[in-house]
Amino acid sequence: MQWKIVTVGKPALRWARDGLDDYLQRMTRTHAVECIHIKDGPPDAISKKMLELSADSHRVLLDERGRQWRSKEMARWIGHQELHGCKRVTILVGGSSGHPEELKAVVKDSWSLSMMTLQHELALVVLVEQIYRAYSILRGDPYHRE
After folding, report:
1. How far is CA 53 from CA 2, 31, 43, 89, in A?
2. pLDDT at 118 > cutoff 90
3. How would you list the strands of the sheet with 88-93, edge to edge?
4. What is the per-residue DSSP string for 83-131?
5. Strands (DSSP E) along 22-108, which ranges?
6. Which tens digit of pLDDT belongs to each residue from 7-39?
7. Which of 46, 64, 58 lies closest to 109, judged by CA?
8. pLDDT (average), residues 68-86
9. pLDDT tens string 88-104
10. How far apart are CA 67 and CA 76, in angstroms?
């Protein structure tokens, strides 16, 4: 399955860039992962760009009110999507203002990484690490320990 992560703004903090790059590099060994950073701007312009970039895929919105997963549940969701022929997943990560309602209305799945508010760059690193972890669970790799 191919992954695309569309996010508003590039990580400015070095540790976040390093963490993001590390997990993206690890995942490219087994899965196609693309991280696209778009410029911040008016909410309607951001929504339009996100919809364009995700037009050919299963869209997932990262939102504080979204579904919270345990790592094994997320791995099962990924396995289910792959088993049922899902070719592409695009995760939409909004800016500091979140996502406009018109974008939320057209996206089927919404995930939350935590009940706590996470700093934008930290959320990106956590997201990519959890996708990597889910695949390690599916492969039975020792990365995920119980």
Report:
1. 13, 19, 15, 11
2. no
3. 33-38, 2-8, 88-93, 58-68, 109-112
4. HTT--EEEEEE-BTTB--HHHHHH-SEEEES-SS---HHHHHHHHHHHH
5. 33-38, 58-68, 88-93
6. 998 888 999 999 999 999 998 877 888 999 999
7. 58
8. 95
9. 999 999 877 778 888 88
10. 14
